[in-house]
Amino acid sequence: MEYYKLSVFSVVGSGFCIEAEEGEAVYEQIIKAFKNEKKVELSFLNVEMTTTAFLNTAVGQLLKDYEKDFIKKNLKVVEASNSIAIRLVRVVDTAED
After folding, report:
1. DSSP state of 60
2. Which of 25, 83, 36 has the alpha carbon at shortest distance from 59?
3. What is the pTM of this model?
4. How many CA atoms lie within 13 A of 49 on its CB side?
Protein backbone atom coordinates (compact mmCIF):
# COMPACT_ATOMS: atom_id res chain seq x y z
CA MET A 1 0.00 0.00 0.00
CA GLU A 2 1.48 3.37 -0.96
CA TYR A 3 1.39 6.48 1.23
CA TYR A 4 -0.75 9.48 0.41
CA LYS A 5 0.76 12.60 1.99
CA LEU A 6 -2.01 14.75 3.39
CA SER A 7 -1.10 18.24 4.58
CA VAL A 8 -3.46 19.51 7.28
CA PHE A 9 -2.29 23.05 6.54
CA SER A 10 -3.21 22.69 2.85
CA VAL A 11 -6.65 21.24 3.56
CA VAL A 12 -7.56 23.83 6.19
CA GLY A 13 -5.75 26.73 4.56
CA SER A 14 -4.39 27.95 7.88
CA GLY A 15 -2.03 27.05 10.70
CA PHE A 16 -4.92 27.36 13.14
CA CYS A 17 -7.10 24.26 13.01
CA ILE A 18 -9.99 25.11 15.27
CA GLU A 19 -13.39 24.27 13.83
CA ALA A 20 -14.93 20.80 13.66
CA GLU A 21 -15.91 21.57 10.05
CA GLU A 22 -12.21 21.92 9.20
CA GLY A 23 -11.58 18.56 10.83
CA GLU A 24 -14.35 17.04 8.73
CA ALA A 25 -12.50 18.06 5.56
CA VAL A 26 -9.36 16.29 6.80
CA TYR A 27 -11.38 13.24 7.87
CA GLU A 28 -12.98 12.98 4.42
CA GLN A 29 -9.55 13.05 2.74
CA ILE A 30 -8.29 10.29 5.06
CA ILE A 31 -11.36 8.13 4.38
CA LYS A 32 -11.00 8.67 0.63
CA ALA A 33 -7.37 7.51 0.74
CA PHE A 34 -8.25 4.44 2.83
CA LYS A 35 -11.00 3.50 0.37
CA ASN A 36 -8.41 3.77 -2.42
CA GLU A 37 -6.21 1.35 -0.46
CA LYS A 38 -3.61 3.97 0.43
CA LYS A 39 -1.91 4.60 3.72
CA VAL A 40 -1.99 8.20 4.91
CA GLU A 41 0.92 10.30 6.08
CA LEU A 42 -0.84 13.11 7.93
CA SER A 43 1.45 16.14 8.08
CA PHE A 44 0.99 18.93 10.61
CA LEU A 45 3.80 21.02 9.10
CA ASN A 46 3.07 24.75 9.61
CA VAL A 47 0.13 23.99 11.92
CA GLU A 48 0.55 26.11 15.02
CA MET A 49 -2.60 25.25 16.93
CA THR A 50 -5.38 22.67 16.99
CA THR A 51 -8.44 22.24 19.16
CA THR A 52 -9.84 19.03 20.55
CA ALA A 53 -12.98 19.60 18.44
CA PHE A 54 -10.86 19.69 15.28
CA LEU A 55 -8.88 16.56 16.19
CA ASN A 56 -11.99 14.64 17.31
CA THR A 57 -13.54 15.26 13.92
CA ALA A 58 -10.38 14.79 11.84
CA VAL A 59 -8.98 11.70 13.55
CA GLY A 60 -11.11 10.57 16.49
CA GLN A 61 -14.13 9.67 14.41
CA LEU A 62 -12.01 7.27 12.31
CA LEU A 63 -12.52 4.81 15.17
CA LYS A 64 -16.21 4.52 14.30
CA ASP A 65 -15.23 3.33 10.81
CA TYR A 66 -12.03 1.35 11.40
CA GLU A 67 -10.40 -0.78 14.08
CA LYS A 68 -7.58 0.86 16.05
CA ASP A 69 -5.04 -1.63 14.63
CA PHE A 70 -5.99 -0.67 11.07
CA ILE A 71 -5.56 3.01 11.88
CA LYS A 72 -2.18 2.41 13.55
CA LYS A 73 -0.95 0.54 10.47
CA ASN A 74 -2.37 2.93 7.89
CA LEU A 75 -2.19 6.42 9.40
CA LYS A 76 1.15 7.98 10.22
CA VAL A 77 1.25 11.41 11.85
CA VAL A 78 4.32 13.46 10.97
CA GLU A 79 5.65 16.95 11.65
CA ALA A 80 3.36 17.50 14.65
CA SER A 81 4.44 19.56 17.63
CA ASN A 82 4.57 17.88 21.03
CA SER A 83 1.34 19.59 22.11
CA ILE A 84 -0.51 18.40 19.00
CA ALA A 85 0.85 14.87 19.43
CA ILE A 86 -0.25 14.77 23.08
CA ARG A 87 -3.70 16.08 22.17
CA LEU A 88 -3.99 13.45 19.42
CA VAL A 89 -3.22 10.64 21.86
CA ARG A 90 -5.91 11.94 24.22
CA VAL A 91 -8.43 12.20 21.40
CA VAL A 92 -7.83 8.61 20.31
CA ASP A 93 -7.95 7.31 23.90
CA THR A 94 -11.22 9.15 24.54
CA ALA A 95 -12.76 8.01 21.25
CA GLU A 96 -12.10 4.39 22.18
CA ASP A 97 -14.06 4.62 25.43
Report:
1. G
2. 25
3. 0.93
4. 4
